[in-house]
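Input (structure):
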C-alpha cells in the first residue's frame, strides 16, 4: 500500500521539478506578457521653419480612443456605450473590435476632442482607454503645400520635404516597460527598462512665408481671372540660388491630404517639363553674344512675319520687317531668333544649353525633380537649331528655367537652387549648413550684362513685358506664349497655350527673380504671356522688393521709356 502513495508522490515531485526547470522560462515569459506591456514613447517630429523662423510645419499631441479586445468581456455593451458618446454606430464599433483578432490594441477614434475624451474616461469601461499621439499640422494651410508635403499619422514623411528629410525630422521613439493590472492600467513603470525618445531635428528653409503668401495669392487670382488649368510661380535670389517662394496651382490642404486628388499634390515647379516658347529666347541669345556672332544693334530682316525654312513655315505674331538683334528678343520675333540661332553649330548650341543645366536636374533638395528633355545631338534635325532658338523641340522644368535665367542676371554665374538652409538639433545647434553653391560660369560677364541690363530691360520698357513695369524699380524680363503639345502624339493642342513671364529687378543690381507660368488660360479672355503672366510677376516684385529692403533704382515715380 505504501508503494502507491510513494509512486504518486514521486510523480508529483518530478512534475514540480519539470515545471521549475524545463517549463519555468516559458511560464515566466507568459506571466511577463500578461503582467507587463511595452509602451512606445513617441519622439516629437522636428519643425519646419522659414528663413525668419516662422513655423511652417510642427507637431502637437492629440488624444485618441483605443480598445484592448482581450479585456472586453461584452463587446455589444461596450459598443453601445461608446457609440452614444462618440456619435458612432454600435455595430460598426463592435465589428472593429472583432476584426482585431489576437491583437491587443486597436484604434476606435483618433483625434478625439476634449469632451469625447472626458466622457470616455467617465465611462470607465474595461478594455477602453485614451492615448495621446502626435499630429502634424501646417499653420499656413494650402500655402507651400507642394514644397512641404505631409506626414502620415504614424509620424512618417510621405511627400515633399517631409519625405526627403524624414530621417532628420522623425527622431527616434523611446520604449517604457510597465507593470499592468487586470484592466491593463499602468500600476508601475520599471525605471531600469526605459529608453528615452530623441526628438527630430528642425529644418530651416530659404522660403519666406510672407513672400510665399503674396505669390500664392497672385497665382490664385491669375488662375481665376483667366480660367486656367494650372499654374506655377517661383521667386529666387539669383546671387545665392535661394528659393524665396515656390507655388503650384491647384493646391491642397496638407492637414487633410487624403481629400486631395494625386494630380493636385504634384509639385509642378520641379516635376513638369514643358516647351518654354519665347521665354527661352534669352538663353540662346546670350550664347550668341558670348560667341561674338551678333551684337545688340545688328539689323535682322524678319520677313514681315512669314519665312519658309525648308519645308517649315515660320510665323511671327506681328508683321516685323527690320529689327535690331535687341528688338528680336524684346519684341519676341521667332523668325529673327531662328535666323540667329542657325549661326551657331548644333554642337556649340547644345553645349551652351548643357552649360545652362538644361540636360540635367538642378539638384534642388525636393523629391521628384525631372531632368527635362534636351535631345542628344544625334537626334537633332536640320530644323532643331532654329526651333530651339525660340523654345521648341525641348522641354524644361520651371526650376531649370529660372535657374538658367538667374545665371544671366547674375553676371553669367549659375547658382544651385537651394531651399533648405540648415538643419538644427532639438536644442537649436546647427548640425548641417547648406551654403550657396556656384555651379559654373555659364557665359562671360560682358555678354550677361548686355543681355540683362540692356536687352531684357528693353523688353519691359518698350517690348512685350510692359505690363510688369514698376514705378520705383527697373524691371527686366522676357515673355513667352508657347503652344501646348499633345501628351500622346505629335503636334499641338488647338487653342492651348502656356503663358510665361520671367522677370528680375532692380536692373542695376538684380536681387530677385520671378517666374510665372500659366497653363491653358481661356483663349477668349487672354493667353499671351504679356497679358496673363507679366502683371502677376509685376505684382509679386512690387511687394517683394520693398519687403526685402532693396533700394529703388528709379528716381521718384519715373519710368524708363527707352534704352540707348
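Output (sequence):
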Amino acid at each position: 500500500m505504501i508503494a502507491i502513495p510513494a509512486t504518486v508522490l514521486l510523480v508529483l515531485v518530478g512534475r514540480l521539478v519539470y515545471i521549475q526547470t524545463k517549463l519555468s522560462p516559458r511560464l515566466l515569459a507568459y506571466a511577463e506578457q500578461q503582467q507587463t506591456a511595452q509602451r512606445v514613447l513617441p519622439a516629437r517630429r522636428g519643425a519646419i521653419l522659414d528663413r525668419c523662423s516662422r513655423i511652417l510645419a510642427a507637431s502637437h499631441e492629440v488624444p485618441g480612443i483605443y480598445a484592448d479586445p482581450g479585456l472586453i468581456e461584452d463587446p455589444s455593451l461596450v459598443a453601445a456605450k461608446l457609440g452614444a458618446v462618440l456619435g458612432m454606430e454600435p455595430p460598426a464599433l463592435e465589428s472593429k473590435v472583432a476584426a482585431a483578432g489576437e491583437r491587443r490594441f486597436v484604434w476606435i477614434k483618433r483625434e478625439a476632442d476634449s469632451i469625447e475624451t472626458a466622457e470616455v474616461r467617465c465611462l470607465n469601461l474595461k478594455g477602453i482607454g485614451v492615448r495621446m499621439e502626435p499630429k502634424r499640422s501646417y499653420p499656413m494651410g494650402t500655402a507651400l503645400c507642394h514644397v512641404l508635403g505631409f506626414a502620415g499619422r504614424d509620424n512618417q514623411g510621405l511627400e515633399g520635404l517631409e519625405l526627403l528629410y524624414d530621417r532628420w525630422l522623425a527622431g527616434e521613439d523611446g520604449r517604457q516597460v510597465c507593470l499592468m493590472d487586470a484592466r491593463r492600467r499602468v500600476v508601475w513603470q520599471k525605471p531600469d527598462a526605459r529608453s528615452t525618445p530623441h526628438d527630430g531635428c528642425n529644418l530651416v528653409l530659404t522660403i519666406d512665408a510672407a513672400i510665399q503668401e503674396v505669390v500664392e495669392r497672385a497665382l490664385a487670382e491669375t488662375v481665376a481671372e483667366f480660367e486656367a488649368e494650372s499654374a506655377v510661380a517661383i521667386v529666387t535670389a539669383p546671387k545665392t540660388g535661394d528659393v524665396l517662394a515656390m507655388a503650384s496651382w491647384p493646391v491642397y490642404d496638407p492637414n487633410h491630404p487624403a481629400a486631395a486628388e494625386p494630380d493636385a499634390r504634384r509639385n509642378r515647379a520641379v516635376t513638369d517639363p514643358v516647351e518654354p516658347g519665347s521665354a527661352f529666347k534669352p538663353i540662346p541669345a546670350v550664347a550668341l553674344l558670348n560667341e561674338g556672332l551678333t551684337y545688340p544693334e545688328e539689323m535682322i530682316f524678319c520677313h514681315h512675319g512669314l519665312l519658309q525654312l525648308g519645308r517649315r513655315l515660320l510665323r511671327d505674331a506681328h508683321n516685323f520687317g527690320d529689327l535690331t538683334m535687341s528688338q528680336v528678343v524684346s519684341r519676341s520675333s521667332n523668325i529673327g531668333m531662328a535666323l540667329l540661332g542657325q549661326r551657331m553649330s548644333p554642337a556649340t548650341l547644345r553645349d551652351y544649353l548643357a552649360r545652362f543645366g538644361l540636360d540635367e536636374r538642378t539638384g534642388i533638395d525636393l523629391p521628384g525633380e525631372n531632368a527635362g528633355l534636351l535631345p542628344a545631338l544625334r537626334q537633332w534635325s536640320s530644323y532643331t537649331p532654329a526651333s530651339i532658338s525660340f523654345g521648341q523641340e525641348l522641354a524644361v522644368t520651371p526650376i531649370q528655367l529660372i535657374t538658367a535665367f538667374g545665371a544671366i542676371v547674375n553676371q553669367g554665374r549659375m547658382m544651385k537652387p537651394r531651399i533648405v538652409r540648415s538643419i538644427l538639433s532639438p536644442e537649436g545647434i546647427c548640425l548641417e549648413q547648406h551654403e550657396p553653391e556656384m555651379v559654373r560660369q555659364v557665359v562671360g560677364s560682358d555678354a550677361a550684362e548686355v543681355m540683362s541690363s540692356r536687352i531684357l530691360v528693353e523688353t519691359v520698357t518698350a517690348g512685350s513685358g510692359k505690363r510688369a513695369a514698376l514705378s520705383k524699380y527697373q524691371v527686366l524680363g522676357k515673355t513667352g506664349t508657347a503652344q501646348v503639345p499633345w501628351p500622346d502624339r505629335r503636334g499641338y493642342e488647338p487653342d492651348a497655350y502656356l503663358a510665361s513671364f520671367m522677370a528680375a529687378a532692380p536692373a542695376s543690381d538684380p536681387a530677385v527673380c520671378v517666374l510665372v507660368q500659366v497653363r491653358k488660360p481661356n483663349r477668349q479672355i487672354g493667353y499671351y504671356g504679356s497679358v496673363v503672366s507679366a502683371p502677376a510677376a509685376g505684382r509679386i516684385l512690387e511687394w517683394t522688393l520693398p519687403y526685402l529692403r532693396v533700394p529703388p533704382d528709379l528716381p521718384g515715380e519715373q519710368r524708363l521709356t527707352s534704352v540707348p
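Notes: Residues 557-564 have pLDDT under 50 and may be disordered. The radius of gyration is 33 Å.
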